[in-house]
Amino acid sequence: MELSSALLLDPAPLPARPSEPRVLYDLGLSLLAGLGLGALAALRVEALHARLETPDDVRRGLGLPPLGVVPDFTLVPGADGPSDPSIAAEAYRGVRTGLGFLDPERPPRSVVVTSSEPGEGKTATAVNLAISLAALDCRVILVDAALRGAAVHRALGLPPAPGLTDVVSGRASLAAAIRGIDPTTGGPTAAAAAGALHVLAAGTPAGDPADVLGSPRWHDLLRSLAKRYDTVVIDGPAVLAAADAALLAAAAEAAVLVVRGHRTERPVVRRALARLRAVHARVIGVVLNGVDPACGYYRSYAYPFAA
To answer: Exposed site from 28, 95, 134, 148, fewest CB < 10 Å?
Structure first.
């Protein structure tokens, strides 16, 4: 057997530099991989902490001051049931104090209490804030303007009508529609009683609440109430549930947003704030409601707000 002869066409060139490792190339890939993993980790953390849980979350995530922290009363140790008046009164005195510190020399005369979505505790906040303000011997009226789902009259044991819609439509006078609540007991009393909290219920159901709350007669009524009372507290509908909330917030001097701690997500609250700011509503702060009193931050933040 004969082997064919091999012919050398070109000599193998000597490499000018090592082919491995490619330091700059590897460093670039490592940097890109690290940035990608870091971004994924940040998104993961953001997803885990999408809900507003602490007052610091409110400050950083929304850019608004927390006016107070209200616990989930069913979880408060030593409470006599979910409606323990002493614990509730203390919590809402904290909200009252937080509201008073915002602008002590020029406090808002009319305040809408609203939330992003239903079920966050806006009605309970409006009712208890009004009672707490009236306990200071201030002239306070609580107005139920959540006309699609009025709840103030049920919370206070009052008849639903006559009320706001009846006054605006001219079916009833304001004097006939106002009811009284004793701020020390939370029970009904004569509207003429000294120190009574005045309440204007929602009234007879209206066809389209937006027609009522967008009417000149409602604006005239609100201006009249703001002159007669030190504070007008308005329970409004949830911002993302009805257009009425934006109408109310635009008409009032200020708006307070109630956020359910550990449940309401930041993007939801930001959408609600964007809707309020689109009508130039003045959102002055947030009440963080329904928080777990066992959380480490609760005592740190709740007690300094208390009066």
So the answer is: 28
